[in-house]
Amino acid sequence: MIAIEDHDAVRTITLDRPEALNAFDTALYRAAGAALDAARSDDGVKVVIVTGAGRAFSAGQDLKELERIASGQAYESGFPALLDALCAFDKPLIAAVNGVAVGIGFTMLAHCDLVFVAESARMRTPFGELGVPPEAASSWLFPQRVGWQRAAHILMANAWVSAEQAVEYGIALERVPDGELMDRVRAEAAHIAAAPLGALRAIKTTMLDGQRDQVAAARRREDRAFAVTFGFDPAVLDD
Amino acid sequence: MIAIEDHDAVRTITLDRPEALNAFDTALYRAAGAALDAARSDDGVKVVIVTGAGRAFSAGQDLKELERIASGQAYESGFPALLDALCAFDKPLIAAVNGVAVGIGFTMLAHCDLVFVAESARMRTPFGELGVPPEAASSWLFPQRVGWQRAAHILMANAWVSAEQAVEYGIALERVPDGELMDRVRAEAAHIAAAPLGALRAIKTTMLDGQRDQVAAARRREDRAFAVTFGFDPAVLDD
Amino acid sequence: MIAIEDHDAVRTITLDRPEALNAFDTALYRAAGAALDAARSDDGVKVVIVTGAGRAFSAGQDLKELERIASGQAYESGFPALLDALCAFDKPLIAAVNGVAVGIGFTMLAHCDLVFVAESARMRTPFGELGVPPEAASSWLFPQRVGWQRAAHILMANAWVSAEQAVEYGIALERVPDGELMDRVRAEAAHIAAAPLGALRAIKTTMLDGQRDQVAAARRREDRAFAVTFGFDPAVLDD
Fold first, then answer.
1. Which residue has the higher pLDDT, A176 or A78?
2. Within an 8 Å CB–CB cutoff, is residue A27 touching chain B?
3. Which residue of B has its CA nearest to A142?
4. Is C214 on the interface with B (CB under 8 A)?
5. Cβ <8 Å between A222 and B206
6. Chains A, C: CB contacts under 8 A, how many?
7. How many separate domains does chain B show?
8. Do C170 and B151 touch (CB under 8 A)?
9. Dihedral sign for Cα atoms in the order A29, A35, A41, A43
């Protein structure tokens, strides 16, 4: 479900559920969150790469599970576990977007420090279509990252964002030919990992602290809106 | 003064004072604010388009009225009524900038979610020239929308912004040939209006809530600076 | 060490320590801070230009002094004096980046309103390499000015930013051929100085007030991280 590979001080975490296009069910949310927490605690790890196995980065929330939550058959989601781990991650986090990124597969990119996208990758949020509120603090992070109008367009109109647009909008730092993606990302990760861990932690932590309160507040607002949409108490969303 | 037209769940509000280039006097401020409030309360309306009649979007504050306020002959302005309505608007708001947009005609665009500009449109703030402070929370919203430097340049140097620059700067999402503007905007509005109203409200509200306090604080600062400039109590600006 | 030149209401402050590439030691920090404070207090000055003498804008922190601070031989730095003056500067501040800008020579640009870069200029932060935290509120200002990803890349990977990239990223408003830099900057400054001082102050102050708390908080976090890195109490960094 999750593959881990270390190369010097760079750890690669691969979402490895390719038969479901790496869609997040409770188990994958928790496994990904636990992998990030472990990488954070391990002083041998300076930089983390997140990528997906197969042709997708992640198809997002497992919709079968969303249906069970929406219908009251399931009362918990692993979603907060992944989000908490992303928000707490105090080392450089690089995303290698190897293919399609939908929903949380897209919104989690706003929690990564450097995003590299394969030329064939594309991303999309289906919130309007599914009739659900934004998630993962995207209601605040997307306006910050891509500007209000592009954020509104992505969130309200559910348009596909191409790899080229991702760079133009500031979602991604660089677009890379599909076959060269991992080499490019590993080279950048190794370059950053040459710095002392203390300095990297100080840089990332001071950056994160500048948005911590707003991200937490956005998550609370979105959770409340989600609960209102589905008619239950927001507390059931807690892990 | 204001023309209203509904097409399915999309309402178009047209500033209709073309003989004055749709400049805002007290009556137009209030009529526009009331039209937005009515559209917000009407569950049959999912998306609103704002545009101008004739060759201008809006020439901004009616300067004759500004002179009366500055000289103490008038003690109230409709300005806060429009601003309050913009800040409270919890549905997708699209601006179709059909022509020149000056002052509040420009600054109100930072309160819209998607802005489409006709190729011949251009925009400008005259604050430095007129010797007045920024307005409509533009002192905070412009740095957020277009970056600090372009905001400083727009606010301090009063430069004209072309339709092409508006897109480059992130003021507008898209530039459209003049004759095709309304068709393009209506198509986008109809596309967004396909989503459930609840989801659109949740997206817009969670986005707005992420900037509500900062926008309110910026308005208070600007109102105080305006009162200081003209030597009267800020309370007289209240509606 | 500092050269001052007035032309009508425009004051040019030149960092004038070319033999050290205008690197900041305690004396230059304080002289630059004092020059900004004096320009702020002087009602004959409407706009200030900051530039560097010789081929560099500024090589940043004087490294010999940093070593003395890090080793406990020196217990104070002029750094806060410059930063306080930048944060308090309530008139338009224009940077003419005539050459290389490193460390504080780069991060101080995020405190300027309009930045013009000579074609041959380039900029860089060496924080990761030196093993030190970000400074001058860059942990918050850089994400605001250039976006999270480019900020992370600049701060973590220490990459050189070219004049062309500076404009593309939003660090600079305009790139100018080397020999034309000062003429271009002086023309823009004179244009802005045509506005009344009161309006310029109102514009700049309302803009600054919108980020004052976040900048102060970022400086406190960075100072703490710096103290932790070098194992002493943050109070010694105070001027």
1. A176
2. no
3. B207
4. no
5. yes
6. 93
7. 1
8. no
9. negative
| Residue A236 clears pLDDT 80, i.e. is over it | no
| pLDDT above 80: residue A71 | no
**Residue A179 burial class via C-beta count within 10 angstroms: exposed 0-12, middle 13-18, buried 19 and up:** exposed
The CA distance from A81 to the nearest CA of chain C, in Å, is 23
> Which portions of chain C are predicted below pLDDT 70?
74-76, 233-239
Q: For C169-194, write each residue's pLDDT tens digit.
A: 999 999 999 999 999 999 999 999 99
* Phi and psi torsions of C13, nearest 5°: -105, 115
A97 phi and psi angles, rounded to 5 deg: -85, 95
Q: Which two tokens stand for residue C148?
A: 């999270």
pLDDT tens digits along B34-86: 999 999 999 999 999 999 999 999 999 998 887 777 777 765 679 999 999 99
Question: Would you tell me how many other CB atoms lie within 10 Å of the CB of residue B64?
Answer: 11
Burial C138-157 (b: 16+ CB within 10 A, else e): bbbbbbbbbbbbbbbbbbbb
In terms of DSSP bridges, do strands C47-52 and C10-15 run parallel, antiparallel, or are they unpaired?
A: parallel
Determine the residue among C124, C140, C149, C161 to mutate to test chain A binding: the one whose Cβ has the most chain A Cβ atoms within 10 Å.
C149
| Alpha-carbon distance B29 to nearest alpha carbon in chain A (angstroms) | 24
Strand blocks (E) in B92-200: 93-97, 100-102, 114-118, 122-124, 161-162, 174-176
Q: For chain A, say whether C145 makes contact (Cβ under 8 Å).
A: no
Question: CA C214: distance to chain centroid?
Answer: 17
Compare B221 and A68 and report the one with higher pLDDT: B221
Mutation choice for A interface testing from C130, C146, C148 by most A CBs within 10 A: C148
Q: What is the CATH number of the domain that holds A25?
A: 3.90.226.10
Q: Is residue C183 a part of any domain in this protein?
A: no
Decide if C186 is inside a domain: no
What residues in chain B have per-residue pLDDT under 50? 238-239
Range of the domain at B59: 2-178+197-237
Largest CA distance in chain A: 50
The model's pLDDT over A129-160, given as tens digits with 9 standing for 90+, comes to: 888 999 999 999 999 999 999 999 999 999 99
Cβ pair B96, B47 in contact under 8 A: no
* Integer Cα distance of B127 and B158 in angstroms: 7
By residue count, chain B amounts to 239
Residue C41, both tokens: 């207090």
* Contact yes or no for A121/A101 (Cβ under 8 A): yes
- B18 within a domain of the structure (yes/no): yes
Residue B155 in domain: yes
